[in-house]
Amino acid sequence: MRIKVNREMHRIFTLLVFVALSVAMSGCGGSTTTTSNNNSAATPEVNRNAPQTQAQQTPTPDPVQAIYGEWETDNQDAKTMSGASTQFVRWKINPGIKDQNGLYTGKLTNPDTNADLANYKFGPQNTVNLEFVPPAPAGSKTFDYEVSSDGNTLTLKTGNQPILLKRGTTNRDILADVAKISTASLGASPIWEPISNTKSLIKNKYNQDVDQVQFASATLSGEGYGGRMVLLNLGSPVGDGTYIIPSKNNVTLDMRSGKTQAKYALEQNGDILKITFGDGTEWVFNRK
Predict the structure, then answer these.
(1) Among 99, 104, 236, 255, who pairs with 241 as Cys (CB 3.0-4.6 Å)?
(2) Pick the CATH number of 65-166 from 3.90.550, 2.20.25, 2.40.128, 1.10.3470
């Protein structure tokens, strides 16, 4: 009987030990799982099958892109560029094509007529070669060039004579006014007739009346666009002077008695010309 009880107790003890070990092992496994979950939350799993994003590369800009467009210069610089030609007062650098040597070639044109003025080649480095189109007599010239930080001034250097070019349409606007005011030849349109109040103000140096005025065909000088201002009476010249338009709405008159600065304005589609002097005196002309 005693032996039987001992065996029974041994079986119970063995069962308890087994249960205890099972519980202990189960607890360790749970702890391991918890730790794994914590690590997973801290470091998200990377989907290695997802497409990888590559950094976008910025295309290399055209190094002469800042030079494309319309430019203006004065007559003296135009002569220096093209060899005593006045056709470079306004010009346009059209977008070029990069050749196999990395040089940019294209055309330089008149922005108002689209006529070819020169072929250009930018490069190597900051140099540009201009091959002028006849009738410009200069042939081919190479310049060093530099663009201002604001992109509004282009300097061409050759020897000790830098040529400055500016962006804008100032010369174009002046030329439009000059075309309305001046005549290609005396006697041809336009002829300007002073109104009655103005007629009493304009006399030649002999105090003769003036009933018509003509502005002869304008040419460009270092001061601006200008030419002869011819005074007429009954269709015959009775005196003359000069006029110069240095900038939009400004004119300088010289009637053989010294230069006088004034303002001009074209009204009613160019059919009325007003010239106003500093003292308030106003000349008003009707186009004939």
Answers:
(1) 255
(2) 2.40.128
